[in-house]
Design goal:
single chain; alpha/beta; three-stranded antiparallel beta sheet; 12 helices; 15% strand; elongated
Length: 321
């Protein structure tokens, strides 16, 4: 048997993390089969096999992250984190058999980090999910993967991909081609994800038959979509009125996913991000899930984490008078 110690930031954090009368500690110890898990002041003492200790440290890393984001954790949070750590997250993939006359792809997507697994679970259990995180955390890819899975299972009838065209000020008329061609440059990340998950010819047929639709944000006004998977990418570049307009497009049986990185807002100065505003306004609304990913969830080249860390650490120095 091995032993590990986790030092917490404060006694207050320990009280919230342990639960009433150490309820959460008992749940975690039982689920992981550990020999011992006790709290002493602002410390946690773990005893068990090396695998159990590794799982225990992952559980508490995730719970502490949730605690910082939410200000508290619930028994349901503990159960969700335990399921993610023990089972490795749910797979996203097509239902057995063909869908809509097409041969179903055999590819499955599995979350690669605990944060991504929480994201996938939120997508499965909520009608509206807002996910914030830095580049490379899989926000867009997992959203598209889930939408494709819903489409194959006939849980939705179409997929609508939306992105604000900030650089063109939503005035796309001067660009050549039809609507798809005009908005194509702004939706390239969504197309890339679709082509990774489906055969390109199948994507083309779905778009021609309007099963998959691309739409600039400005053209969503006045629509109601039933039942559809609606994905808004780069949500940090919406204004507050635009975000309100988009979120109210949800029809019966629809699912809405909003992704974005609030550290990369391209709006004019002093314009509040609609995504940042929505994360505050909707934090206590039932059936809405708010997911925060961080640099630990980056699954691109490991250098991406170091690059982001270098930029985050840089602070402009004030010139001395």
């Amino acid at each position: 048997m091995s032993e590990a110690t986790i030092n917490l930031d404060s006694r207050d954090e320990a009280i919230l993390l342990f639960g009433s009368r150490d309820q959460y500690l008992r749940e975690i110890r039982t689920a992981l089969g550990m020999q011992q898990l006790v709290g002493r002041g602002d410390q946690l003492i773990l005893r068990g096999t090396d695998e159990q200790l590794a799982q225990g440290e992952r559980v508490f890393t995730q719970l502490r992250q949730l605690l910082r984001q939410q200000g508290s954790i619930s028994s349901e949070d503990v159960k969700t984190v335990l399921e993610v750590v023990i089972q490795g997250g749910d797979r996203i993939g097509p239902a057995p058999g063909p869908a809509r006359g097409e041969a179903a792809s055999s590819r499955f997507v599995r979350p690669r980090t605990d944060g991504q697994a929480r994201y996938v679970r939120a997508l499965q259990e909520h009608d509206l999910t807002l996910c914030v995180g830095p580049a490379g955390t899989g926000k867009t890819f997992l959203a598209v993967a889930m939408a494709v899975s819903w489409l194959r299972q006939a849980a939705v009838k179409k997929i609508v991909l939306v992105r604000p065209a900030v650089e063109a000020g939503e005035r796309l008329g001067y660009l050549p081609g039809d609507m798809v061609a005009k908005v194509n440059p702004y939706l390239r990340p969504l197309y890339d994800a679709l082509n990774d998950l489906m055969e390109p010819e199948q994507v083309k047929r779905y778009m021609e038959s309007d099963i998959i639709e691309v739409c600039p944000l400005a053209y969503m006004r006045g629509r109601t979509l039933n039942p559809a998977a609606i994905i808004l990418d780069e949500g940090q570049n919406t204004t507050v009125p635009q975000m309100k307009m988009f979120l109210t497009r949800m029809g019966n049986g629809s699912k809405i996913i909003v992704t974005g990185d609030i550290t990369q807002v391209d709006l004019p100065p002093h314009t509040r991000s609609g995504l940042q505003d929505a994360m505050q306004r909707l934090r206590n609304v039932e059936r809405i899930s708010l997911i925060y990913l961080d640099e630990g969830d980056i699954v691109r080249n490991p250098l991406v984490q170091q690059i982001l860390r270098a930029y985050d650490e840089e602070r402009p120095r004030k010139r001395k008078e």
